[in-house]
Amino acid sequence: MAERIVSPGVFTRERDLSFLPQGIADIGAAIIGPTLKGPAFVPTVVRNFPEFEEMFGSTDKRYYTPYAVEQYLRSAGTVTIVRVLNTAGYSVDSLAIKIGSTTAAVIASGDLTLTGTIEDNDQFVLVGTDGTYTFIPQGQPGTDIPNVYFFQSGSTLTATATNLAAEMTGKGGVAVTSAAAKVIVSASAAGTAGNSITFTSGSTTTTLSEGANSVGGRTLAVLAPSRGGSDGTADLEGSTIVGTWASASLVLSGSNWGAKSLTSYTYVIGFDTGSTYASYIEDVFSKDAQVQKSGQNTVSAYLYKSFKYEHSGKLWDKDDDVTVEDGTLNLAVTYNNAETPYIQSQTINSAKYNLFKVQSRSHGSDVNNKFKIVVLNVKKAGTIAGSDYGSFSVQVRQTGLNDNNLTKDNILEQWDGLNFDPLSPNYFARRVGDRYVTIDANGKLTYNGDWPNLSKYIYVSDFSAIADSESPKTVVPMGHAAVNNPFGSDDSSIPAWTFKATQSNAAGEFDSNVLYGVDYANADAGEYLGPVNSFGDGANKSMSLEDFNGHTDASTLGTTYSDGTEKVTLVLSHIKQRKFVVPFQGGYDGDNPAAPKYTGANIVNTNTQGFDCSTSTTGGTISYKKAINAVSNADEFDINMLVTPGIVHGLHSKITNHAISKMEARGDAFYVFDCGIYGDTITSATNAISALDTNYAATYYPWVKIVDRNTSLPVWVPPSCVLPGVIAYTDKVAHEWFAPAGLNRGGLTTVLEAQTRLTHSERDDLYEERVNPIASFPGQGVVVWGQKTLQARPSALDRVNVRRLLIRLKKFIASSSRYLVFEQNSTATRNRFLNIVNPFLESVQANSGLSAFRVVMDDSNNTADVVDRNQLVGQIFIQPTRTAEFIVLDFVVQPTGAAFPE
Questions:
Q1: Of the residues 304, 327, 350, which one is the last residue of a structural domain?
Q2: Over 60: is that where the pLDDT of 667 sits?
């Protein structure tokens, strides 16, 4: 524009309003909670649900996080995920069952005290104390499996006797009847060798035989349990069960044994996979710590490790050297990712070099047996023109732990032509990446490593000797170090851990696709691939291609060579033979796998989705606070909303209060949380939040039902799973300053129904107490019908749309103002600010966000003393546009001829 305007004319000028600070368009919510897999505590941005599924897993009825993400991404373009894992670890009693020098199985239990003996025909008996009594008739030597009878409690003595008789009838070896609240157990015949019955109660075992322990040769006294019940009451304490032998029968009677349960249980197990008995150990104890075997009272114990391959075809008998070692199973005190053992070099001057490890980017137990690393196409140094280094390829493969064949697994990623030359563009760390994040309890993130991660699944680590050129240039991958032995050094000879030593397929034919190394076809290999436990890093076997037999003709299995040097030469000579698999181990969720994961109406302060959030020091509270702290830094993570689905303020206030304080400290994000569990009453919901006073949070009632995308079954979820989606939809079709409620924008189209259909009076009760109702209207569906924040004092900020308007204004203006920091404190800088802010506020006003506004940044608020303190002060006055929540219509009926008011 001209400097002076004197004569008439048209004068043009430019004002650049296109400036948008970086990141404004990508702001989304942060959703915090447990998922099936993925990196823990590291804020991770995803842009669609398939991307979320790939990284964190899909929906699962045990966790609410995936449901919230799915609902939110229907309308939003980005979301930040913070996966929560436990940080406490766990410790339980355990039993290692050994037959000879071989560990046959390890049983983990919470409260079982077990002893073991070998019975006839491969039956192993464990006697424990988990609340049920068992009759075990003594069989003849060499007979089949002893019969197991359950002493079942009933409401009356008669019912108990009937139940017990029904369990025992038809088992064989004895005859059972019940009459007049008595159980009559008849042995085979009076005076015969098999005519005895053993009672096990607590720590005492009594064998009753005809004429033994009798009074007058007829009546026997049976010892009752010596300890009280789990509820503090006595289980038959002080009472006597009287048994009477009559005509080779035992009659049990008593006045109070029907209402109490005895305290002993006997597990009869075997290790013969082909056994006709239903007592194979995996049929008695579940390998899934969350699952109880049908018909078995094993809820407090699960099969931690079982070597099924070693059991197959073997008949253990009473002459075997069998021991049961009591111990404590301690798993890592915190969550962990999985890693491979060191990948090692060939032998150089009688030594092997540790080259590098591969780490999983995902944390948790799930990753141990889901992925494996394959090293192949190994070329020795001196065979690549222009390079002093060798080369190799690396694959990441998804596996079902069932085969060693290259064609069977799903290859997820592959890098070819990798080398150990730090200056090369094919340097393995440069191609794969070595970055990883650590986070402390305060949420401070530390980024480690030099090369960005180009893999979705892994990064490389522990290669300082390579990076610092301390290893010879001739090293190439030829095997790996020993896998951690989860059973201690005394089990180094367990035959289950074997390596594939030839490239033979199932038919014994040569197959170049077959990998050397861990024999994944042996199911017992998977027993090693778990969290590292307290049994120690016992001795185990390393793997090297140099230990296997190569052949000059790589199309044949070859022959056995006795000369170690010759074998090395042959193995290094043929690329088809230079391929091996490396397992992962050590991934851990950080909690007891047997602990239940409560959801819905079962949520308590000590368990929501498996997390104990009852106090400020319990593991769940610490974990959630750590996750919240991770996104509390507004300079690093730009979010506009926080959600913790399944965390209930009435039960887990240590977490919700912490989240509120962090959002208030940020000043640019809004917290949506749950006030109660499924089925909570309106009174419970309103009482739970009565003490809160903040305009940075809102809560809703009641729970709602949606459809699980994987099972197509309905599932109840807390309001915080669907409300972020409503808010995202409002942002999509309108603006942040529009109310995320009502029929236009508050419709919950994916919700089947609300847990209760609120009446008008109930909606009034909720809204008056600042809980936003989720209403159901005929023909309109389920709708969000409120938008109050939790601010107690009436003001413009007691509404969600006004708080979110302020969040939007502050984010834009604060982001814009960053570019003025360290600029000259002059009129020109002030005008730059005004030229950014005024047009933005004008656009907000034009879109019904503001009724009026004024921005002041001049000499009136930037006096000389303010400037001398290196401050630039501005004042922004706004009048938010209020929503019409209460529409009042007066219908005035007038007589004919009356004049209408102007």
A1: 327
A2: yes
As a whole number, mean pLDDT of residues 361-379 equals 91
Tell me the residue length of the chain: 902
Confirm whether 11 is domain-assigned: no
- Three-class SS of residue 452? coil
Residues 34 and 129 in one domain: no
Q: Residue type for 577, please?
A: Q
Written in H, E and C, the secondary structure of 4-40 is CCCCCCCCCCCCCCCCCCCCHHHCEEEEEECCCCCCE
Q: Token pair for residue 758?
A: 């609120």
Handedness of CA 549, 553, 555, 556 (dihedral sign): negative
Examine the domain organization and report whether 363 and 402 are in the same domain.
yes
Distance, in Å, from the CA atom of 257 to the CA atom of 151, rounded to the nearest integer, reads: 10
- CB atoms < 10 A from the CB of 425, how many? 9
Please check whether residues 318 and 185 belong to one and the same domain: yes
Outline where DSSP puts E strands in 471-544: 477-480, 499-500, 516-518, 543-544
Structural tokens at position 602:
């079962």
Q: Which of 550, 583, 616 is the last residue of a domain?
A: 583
> Which pLDDT tens digit goes with each residue over 862-901?
999 999 999 999 899 988 888 765 556 666 666 777 776 7
Q: Report the C-alpha gap between 847 and 851 in whole angstroms.
A: 10
Give yes or no for a contact between 162 and 183, defined as CB atoms under 8 angstroms apart. no
Same domain (yes/no): 438, 313:
no
Residue 900 CA, chain-centre distance (Å), reads: 69
Spell 567-592 as b/e; 16+ CB within 10 A means b. Answer: bbebbbebeebbbbbbbbbbbbbbbb
Q: Which residue has the higher pLDDT, 365 or 751?
A: 751
Q: How many domains does the chain divide into?
A: 4
Position of tokens 């109310």? Answer: 739
Query: Nearest 5°: phi and psi at 230?
Result: -65, -20
| Angstrom distance (rounded) from CA 467 to CA 568 | 26
Dist CA 706 CA 709 (whole Å): 9
DSSP strand pairing (445-448 vs 436-439): antiparallel
Residues 286 and 402 in one domain: no
User: Cβ distance 872 to 884 under 8 Å?
Assistant: no
The answer to whether residues 129 and 111 touch, using CB atoms and an 8 Å cutoff, is: yes
* Host domain of residue 458: 337-583
Look at the alpha carbons of 241, 244, 248, 252 in this order and tell me if their dihedral is positive or negative: negative
pTM above 0.85, yes or no: no
| Residues linked to residue 706 through DSSP beta bridges, in sequence order | 715
Cα dihedral sign, 481-487-493-498: negative
